[in-house]
Amino acid sequence: MFFFVPIEIVDYDIAWPRQFEEEKGRILGAIGRHVAAVEHIGSTAVPGLAAKPIIDILVGLRSLADAMNCIDPLKGLGYEYVPQWEAELPERRYFRRVVPRPRTHHIHMVETTSEFWRRQLLFRDYLRAHPEDARAYETLKRHLASRFEVGRHYAAAKSVFIRTILDKVDRASTLTKDS
Q1: Which residues, 6 or more positions from 32, have their beta carbon under 8 angstroms from its beta carbon?
Q2: Residue 53 maps to which CATH number?
Q3: For residue 94, which of 127, 56, 40 has the smallest C-alpha distance?
């Protein structure tokens, strides 16, 4: 599993948006008829934010059943389907790019109506709009990367920050709707 790979946080790379767009084009060329939307998520999608140098790609489907039709075409692009994570996140299908180099791109495939889809975009958009919180997140990630040797503990530790931000956004959204 990839969670046993050492954590590497690097400074923001201005090439990440271009790398996403190039990969998005390849993905749409291979499975576009099944796809409702493709989004760049994770820290590499937030300008100026240090990150693990992995492009996280959110592929939105109308129905998760369509994911089965995407496995072989994505294998042709160098991706490996990782069904082991479905026990933890049954609403997501996960792929990681292993060719030509491992750990450069991850695909998170979900329905566009799912809570996973909503929360990923909400967190990304919040960090883009609130640079002070993005800096706090970067500081936390660098600290956690130096503290934990493997990804599982790193991911669990930063999830508290993520939940706090998402709860704050949800509360603000509720207040706006009520007023």
Answers
A1: none
A2: 3.30.460.10
A3: 56
